[in-house]
Design brief:
alpha/beta, eight-stranded parallel beta barrel, binds 2-phosphoglycolic acid
């Protein structure tokens, strides 16, 4: 399966910074895209970077969406609006949405439905926190989140899963190979029972150029979701290069 390397800029960047990032990424893409590369800027920057990135063959996504197509939802953004800006993907259920904004798996599921209806690929994020892992409940938590976050209309074509253990996000504390092997195997088994084969499963959490190659070599790791390390195009491209087929 072709790897997907996704960069999540989170809440970073001005227009000038984003234009520069897009220019630098496009320059790198001009000498060949190693795999599917996706950038998820904050919503304020999508209008500026979507076109130059897409022209360079880089996919563009958003970090969240609302479940409705329109309406009185102050501050929210509909999936249809993201599609209109040139997005092909949207993250739903990221742990920062689940934790800081108290979003549930049911919320993530409704957002994924909205994404699909707008023609977007939903990247459904799941992951246990440190307490859940310490209590031996990592699998149970991730499996429960996956079952509740996946909409009935999910297919391998419109859905990507990202397992991002919360304790690994932004901490420098990447999951070890054995944990990644075990979790990705479980998620793939669950997905094959629910949706059939072919759904991409990404790993996320403190990915950087010194661990990306090892992570991508693990069976059932079909790509990476990169936060902090995606803010520097040189570093991000090193990671993306590891996504090239052997
Ligand atoms: P990180 O973030 O790479 O900075 O740990 C990953 C994410 O939250 O998607």
């Amino acid at each position: 399966m072709r790897s997907l390397i996704a960069g999540n800029w989170k809440m970073h960047g001005t227009l000038a910074w984003a234009r520069d990032q897009a220019r630098r990424l496009a320059e790198k893409a001009a000498s060949g895209l190693p795999c599917d590369v996706l950038i998820c800027p904050p919503a304020t920057l999508l209008g500026t970077v979507a076109e130059p990135l897409r022209n360079a063959g880089i996919l563009v996504g958003a970090q969240d969406c609302h479940h409705a197509t329109h309406g009185a939802f102050t501050g929210d953004i509909a999936a249809t609006m993201l599609a209109d800006l040139g997005c092909s993907h949207v993250l739903v259920g990221h742990s920062e949405r689940r934790t800081i904004h108290r979003e549930s798996s049911h919320d993530a599921m409704r957002k994924a439905v909205a994404a699909h209806q707008a023609g977007l690929i939903a990247i459904v994020c799941i992951g246990e926190n440190r307490d859940e892992r310490r209590a031996g409940k990592a699998f149970e938590t991730a499996a429960g989140q996956l079952a509740r976050s996946l909409p009935a209309d999910a297919t391998a074509a419109n859905t990507v899963i990202a397992w991002e253990p919360v304790w690994a996000i932004g901490t420098g504390d990447t999951a070890n190979a054995a944990d990644v092997v075990a979790m990705h195997r479980l998620v793939k088994q669950q997905l094959s029972a629910l949706l059939g084969d072919g759904v991409r499963v990404l790993y996320g959490g403190s990915v950087n150029p010194s661990n990306s190659r090892e992570l991508l070599a693990i069976e059932h790791v079909d790509g990476l979701l990169v936060g902090g390390a995606s803010l520097d195009p040189d570093i991000f491209w090193q990671i993306a290069t590891d996504g090239a087929p052997d």
